[in-house]
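Problem 12. The chain below contains 138 residues. Write out its predicted structure in token notation.
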Amino acid sequence: MKHLARTFSFVCLAVCASPALAETTFEKIKIEAGEKLFNSECRKCHAADASGPSYGPPLENIVGRGAGMVQDYDYSTSLEASGIVWTPAALRAWMEDNDGFMPGTKMRHVGIEDRTVQDFIIAYLSSITTQDNAAISE
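Solution.
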């Protein structure tokens, strides 16, 4: 993790001369870091897309989707009936303390409390959300 933070700092310093380049590079780095963190923290149970094996529901197109909406997945009653939409704030709360955020969930406690790690994972999840989920969330 220290190596990733050091590399991230170096790249940020290197691209700060060009604001447009810095923004694009920064987002790309966040997504790449988020994918690595997703693979180490979330991939144990969740595939990024429906084509991969997954114990939990796949997380492609999650940002903006209503909770409990993946067809053919056996969600807990509490999650399915929650009415929650997976906004970045809701995803952050879930990652930090899913048991506290949604009592009665079947998912084991996650406990990703580092906001930077949460930001990176959310950046990655946003990058694999390629559809507008407004209609799905209603």
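Discussion. DSSP finds six helices and no strands in the chain. Students who got a different answer should revisit the alignment rule from Section 12.3.
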